[in-house]
Amino acid sequence: MPHYLTVGHLLRQLQNLDPDLPIRLAVNPDWPFAHYLGTDVVVGDGMAFIAEDGQEGYLPAVVRDALAWA
What pLDDT does 2 receive? Predict the structure, then answer.
């Protein structure tokens, strides 16, 4: 995985998933919370931005383990 994720890399990772599967953002291994993603994609300065849209709760243990955030 490249250090800088591109739209193409993200599309390839998501293409075989159920399109109705909710998606969350895992943030900060020191405070492992799941965050909602905003619905807007804004392009500026040669990059695409998706805003965080609030905290859902703690990241599930299975996800923390998979990310080695235990």
Answer: 54
Q: Give first-to-last CA distance, the chain, whole Å.
A: 21
How far apart CA 57 and CA 51 sit, in angstroms, is 17
pLDDT tens-place string over residues 5-45: 899 999 999 999 999 999 999 988 899 999 999 999 999 99
Q: Which of 50, 46, 68 is nearest to 59 (CA)?
A: 68
- Closest Cα to residue 33, out of 16, 63, 57, 1? 57
Helix (H) or strand (E) holding 31: none
Instruction: Show the tokens assigned to 23.
Output: 């998606």
Q: Contact at 8 Å (CB) between 50 and 37?
A: yes
| pLDDT at 3 > cutoff 80 | no
